Amino acid sequence: SYIRERNSIKLPDDCQAHYLSIKHSFPQCMIESWLSEYGTENTIKMCEYFNRPANLHLRFDPDKISFEGFAEHLMKRNVKFSRSKFFPYIVKLMSNFRFLDDPLFQKGYYYIQDESTTLPVMLLAPKEKDKVLDLCAAPGGKTLLISAIMHNKGKIIANDIDKRRMRLLRENVQRIKCSNIEFSERDATTFSVDSKFDKILLDVPCSGWGAMQKKPEIRFQNRNRLKSLIPLQKRILDNASKLVRNDGIIVYSTCTLNPDENEKQIENFLELHNEFYLEKPDNFVEKSLITNSYVKSYPFKHNIDGTFSALLRKR
């Protein structure tokens, strides 16, 4: 068996990328890309991060419970936790917790949400009077956070063509008692309405290469999927450009570290749409998350999932 024979198993020594690929169970082409982009030390840290079991994160609603009240609630149940460095209303659990049986969960006081997913919403910075479109909303974590930041005021349209995932969003909206969210189940590439939006969130379908801790199978997905994903992202972004008002904003986000889906997608968009410009994110997130005017989280640097966000303002 592996347990008895593991010390006698020899890893390849022909090249570093092959060695790391076999040792950490990632495609060699992915390792080669990381080595080129981030170097050996950060590549190893990234592999180790993605291969660790994921911690559960809880986002509590400060309109319903304070941090002190939520912390006391968890401590009474012997739950170990730490507060997020990047978002004040998220805690990371260090021990098991049967949250489905918890009365506060059932009453909608908190939601299961990874801290990396809050970054595009922080960049969106929704206000109480805003009209917001979440164009690729399901299963709804970012939609619900937008609603919480808006204190359940203003107007949010949550759109997604995936009916099964939209059912999850509807259930959570009902549990949390959000009254400022309307639902739509249309194609994001052709979605249209008569009036313009103040702010649009585009959390587009992506390869997910920044979220492999929670979805380890993604590392082995068919690379041909990218051939359809990248044009789809472009069509969604192009359509969103027609839906936002002048001086309004679009936040484009992914949970991948692939530059073809991130920086290159934005660069190509700005070349074709001179009515938009890339706005600096300095006022919305801490400096360590900013790379060349983009918001980027790295597992090896921030110890959270890899994500990308860009703030686009219409002139």
TrEMBL record:
One CC-aspect GO term: cytoplasm
One Pfam family, please name it: RsmF-B_ferredox
The protein's UniProt keywords, in alphabetical order, are:
Cytoplasm, Methyltransferase, RNA-binding, rRNA processing, S-adenosyl-L-methionine, Transferase
Is the keyword Flavoprotein in the record? no
Which major enzyme category is it? transferase
Location of the protein in the cell: Cytoplasm
Keyword Acetylation in the entry? The reply is no
Which Gene Ontology molecular-function terms are recorded? RNA binding; RNA methyltransferase activity
**Which residue stretches, if any, does this entry annotate as coiled coil?**
none
SAM-dependent MTase RsmB/NOP-type domain location, by residue?
46-315
An example GO BP is:
rRNA processing
List, from the UniProt record, the residues annotated as the active site of this protein: C255 (nucleophile)
Reactions it catalyzes:
cytidine(967) in 16S rRNA + S-adenosyl-L-methionine = 5-methylcytidine(967) in 16S rRNA + S-adenosyl-L-homocysteine + H(+)
- Main function: Specifically methylates the cytosine at position 967 (m5C967) of 16S rRNA.
Query: What is this protein's record name?
Result: 16S rRNA (cytosine(967)-C(5))-methyltransferase
To which species is this protein native?
candidate division TA06 bacterium
